[in-house]
Amino acid sequence: MVIRIIKRESEKNASELERKMSLLKKKTIAAKTKSDAQKDSGSRKRKIYYVFLILIIFLIVWKAADRKSSIDKVGQKVAEPTGKISGDISRDIIVATTTSLYDSGLLNMIIPAFEKDSGYKVKVIAVGTGEALEMGRRQAADLLLVHAPELEKKFMEAGFGQRREEIMTSEFVIVGPVSDPARIRGKSFSEAFSVIARLQMSFISRGDNSGTHFLEKKIWTEAGINPSGKWYFQVGQGMAESLRIASDKQAYILSDYPTFHQLRSKLQLEVLTQDPAYKNIYSAIIVKNRDGQVNVAGARALADFLVSEKAQKLIYEFGAQPGKDLRLFHPLRIGLK
Q: How far apart are CA 199 and CA 221, in angstroms?
């Protein structure tokens, strides 16, 4: 009986053990199946990720290439030399001119007449001659209106200018207080500068590398003087503002006559002397089209107009002063006195 019970228990235990082993095997198979499924799922996800990444990279590269192509086309359009487009008036003509010429008021007569005849539009930038020439070197202007022949010669020799035309002259003058404490009235420029420096009378220098400033430095050199001290003021301004400062300080100053004439009613200054040895020669320079930025056709049209009979007569008429010995401007291309 005991043996039979033990045998039954043994069989029962063996059956239970077999059941558990079977269950464990099923769990193991299920776990393995799940793991394999997860691996397959992870593999699919990685594949999808890499495909998506490749698509993004392709799109970025394609967009960059397309943008570069568009920029190149725009750049070619902007950089195309205007000189190759006969009769193109769609671009403004950029003119860099001296402040003295701008302040004189002459361009207010000349430019509208040219625009009416040609259809071009002109943008005028008033700077000193030195800065105007620098704009030409940088291809930042199409035409220069300047008045420093020595600097202009160097500009042309360096290959920055295509054509230079002398169009007119005006006078340089030394102006100062009506009382003329230095007694320079009627003296040559060199003599007047020598007296002003010896007496240390207040003198205003434009100090802006303009044509007028260039001439002033030349006269000091010819007089053998290196100006310095509390009496010598370098203001770094254009002609009109420099004249106003000279008036406020009751100082002497070298000026072009047209600008002084334009402002004389607002200044407490007077023309004290002029010197025929120093002519104020104005030239038009067409900037050489070195990198495709210059409006050659427009610059040529304006230069041709400035030496034409019509423009020269306008210069003559603007320069007339009834009852005065000094003219504002003298045209150089027609025989008008």
A: 18
**pLDDT greater than 60 at residue 326:** yes
Residue 5 has pLDDT above 60, yes or no: no
Alpha helices, H only, 98-229: 99-104, 107-118, 129-137, 149-157, 189-199, 211-222
* pTM more than 0.90: no
Separation CA 329–CA 223 (nearest Å): 28
Task: Please report, for the chain, how many H helices and E strands are present, in that order.
Answer: 11, 9
pLDDT in tens, 81-132: 333 334 456 689 999 999 889 988 899 999 999 999 999 999 999 998 999 9
Contact status, residue 99 vs residue 238, Cβ threshold 8 Å = yes
- CB distance 132 to 94 below 8 Å: no
pLDDT at position 320 is 73
Contacts of 305 (CB under 8 A, 6+ apart): 113, 114, 117, 118, 311
Q: Checking DSSP bridges between strand 203-205 and strand 232-234, what pairing results, if any? A: parallel
Mean of pLDDT over the chain:
82
Number of residues assigned to the chain: 337
Would you list the DSSP string of 235-269? ----HHHHHHHHHHHT-EEEEEHHHHHHHGGG-S-
Q: Is 14 helix (H, G, I), strand (E, B) or coil?
A: helix
Bridge partners, residue 11, by sequence: none
d(CA 65, CA 70): 9
pLDDT number for residue 23: 60
Instruction: Tell me the C-alpha distance between 161 and 57, whole Å.
Output: 49
Strands (E), the chain: 93-98, 122-127, 143-146, 161-176, 203-205, 232-234, 252-256, 270-287, 330-331
